[in-house]
Amino acid sequence: MHSKQSKWLWAASLLVYAFLYLPLVIVVVYSFNDSRLNAEWVGFTTKWYGVLFADDQMLTAARNSLLIGLVSSIFATFFGTLAGLAMYKYKLRLLPILVLTPIAIPEILMALSLLMFFVALNFTMGYLSIGLAHIAFSIGFVAIVVRSRLQGMDESLVEAARDLGAGPLQAFWRVTFPLILPGIIAGALMAFTLSIDDFVITYFVAGAGASTLPLQIYSMLKIAVTPEVNAISSLLMLLTLALIVIAAKIAPGALRASH
Amino acid sequence: MKKLLIALCLITGVARADNVLHVFNWNNAISDDTVKAFEAQCKCKVEATYYGSAEEMLAKLSAGAKGFDVIGPANYAITPLVKLNLLQPLDHGKLSNLKNISPTFANTKIDPGNQYSVPYDFTVTLVGYNAQKMKELGVDPTSWSAVFDPKILAKMKGKVTVLDDPREVIGAALRYNGFSANSTNPAELKKAVGTIKAAKPYWAAFNSQSYIKELTVGNIWLALGYSNDMYQARSDAQKAGRPFQIDYALQKEGNGMTADSFVMARNAPRPDLAHQFINFMLDGKNAAQTTNQIGSGTPNSAALPFVRADLKTVPAIAPNAQQAAKLEQLTDLDAKTRRAWNQAWTEIKISK
């Protein structure tokens, strides 16, 4: 009985993983296809990588995406962690609502309201407006992850540290912080991912001449997406994998869901 | 505070290089060579920003996005742009090449006297098809009956796709029934919807995204789509060495078409460069480059001598006077008609 059940579980999980990863494999495979169409396999070539490295627009867009993702996720992680701590420690009514609203409201609403806000301030839109918008919508996600990590933490550990003479800051850095670090790192990775692939909000707050990778790819749809897009996507996947490996090295427990 | 502001300005690039023209357009609508040639002539830089649909562009501009000089909307978006007061009139004194616009496209109802807009390309909604298959089956693709007549469709069941767009498909069904593609008459709309419902069981899908590929590979034999996409499908099939040819033709009942135009934003930072750019694009040689690159039609009479020989004979790119007379520009529908069309579309989508 037991073995039968585990066989089914294995089969089910294999199916789920296949569904998640096969499309990614196909994207990578077709980046080496010697045809302008992602229709069928014609032959092996690396020419699309050549096309990509000669395409300034695409490379600039990719660089912008990575930079905005990096900077905005650092800020969002900092503020989100503070918000998560505050929501856990103090029973505030308003703060959770303020922090979590951006997660709940439809993206298009947030996009238009941010654009109108920048216009009202007479703020010249460019990369700074994109960065600020990304920080704004990422904070909530980081805060939620950090707060749930805190809720799973044993409060008596901090109390014990205090009883043994640690100051409040010392107790935080020595006890609380290491315990919630996996949550913080998960939140940071989430913020980075959200920033990298956001289209709607970015489209509206991007100034004249500012571009990110999703904007660039989306605007190619009208004519036809060439395997050049597969090539840049494959490289990004490689980078993401590298990031996950590095994160796992820095904080071995970080990528495991809980204790 | 002041220091902070200056720092902010530097980051956001307020202190921009002076000589930049900001163009807001479809991606790939203008060839890179044309842009480079213009940059050399005006000693300025062209910064392009792209959008994927007219709705996107309108939404962004009407919410107050600034900083663009020239916008390249589809013609049906010009009316709302003018209504929303987002454009400024063009100074015809600075556009010496204005005379190059062919009479079919100049001074239309959409923009009388070309006060705001100058057309630079056009796309026809038509039938693209697998030439060998049509011959085999004896189907005549130069009539809309190939898309809408169940008797003919019976030969190609599951091998036909149409665009996923009420404006285009209902417009074509109206033409098939002998009405205008911009009809606001409810009775005519009803008849067109009846036509579509009768044809729908024979269609494989409503497809606006991948029909180029499906035609090229041979999965579908006939598609209602855009002329520059059919051009793409045709050259892709040739390059891939398929045993069949993809062709496209105008329909004898007449076709809807959409021109794209250049307009100038009301708050354009550089109206001088904007005029220079629009005039440059009106030059026959430069206009031809656009057609040669993406296979769009050209509304520019002076461009024809420079258009590639194999494109000159394509009616959807360079129609003669007789063919041009049957092309109808799709206009922005009034709110009531648009609601009726969208309702009809929903009804079509859920019908068996």
Cα-atom radius of gyration of chain B: 22 Å
What is the 3D shape of chain B?
globular
SSE ordering of chain B: HEHEHEHEHHHEHHEHEHEEHHHHEH
Question: Considering DSSP H and I runs of 4 or more, what fraction of the residues of chain A is helical?
Answer: over 70%
By CATH's scheme, which homologous superfamily of the largest domain in chain B applies?
Periplasmic binding protein-like II
Could you give the count of β-strands of chain B? 10
The computed structural class of chain A is mainly alpha
Q: What form of chain A results from the Cα inertia axes?
A: globular
Structure description:
Chain A: Keywords: Cell membrane, Membrane, Transmembrane, Transmembrane helix, Transport. Chain A: It is a multi-pass membrane protein. Chain A: The chain crosses the membrane at residues 9-32, 66-88, 95-121, 127-150, 171-194, 200-219, 231-251. The complex is a heterodimer of chains A (259) and B (352). Chain A is mostly helical and 259 residues long. Helices cover 76% and strands 0% of the residues of chain A. The two termini of chain A are 30 Å apart. The model of chain A has no long low-confidence stretch (mean pLDDT 87). Chain B has 352 residues and is α/β, with parallel strands linked by helices. Chain B folds into two domains: 2-122 and 259-317, Periplasmic binding protein-like II (D-Maltodextrin-Binding Protein, domain 2, 3-Layer(aba) Sandwich), CATH 3.40.190.10; 123-256 and 330-350, 3-Layer(aba) Sandwich (D-Maltodextrin-Binding Protein, domain 2), CATH 3.40.190.10. Chain B has helices at 2-12, 32-42, 54-62, 78-83, 131-137, 145-148, 150-153, 166-176, 186-199, 211-217, 227-239, 271-282, 284-294, 309-312, 321-325, 335-350; strands at 20-26, 45-51, 70-71, 117-130, 160-162, 205-206, 222-226, 246-249, 255-264, 327-329. In chain B, helix 8 (166-176) crosses helix 9 and helix 9 runs parallel beside helix 16. The longest helix of chain B has 16 residues, at 335-350. The radius of gyration of chain B is 22 Å and the shape is globular. Chains A and B meet through helix 5, helix 6 and helix 10 of A and helix 1, strand 1, strand 2, helix 3 and helix 10 of B.
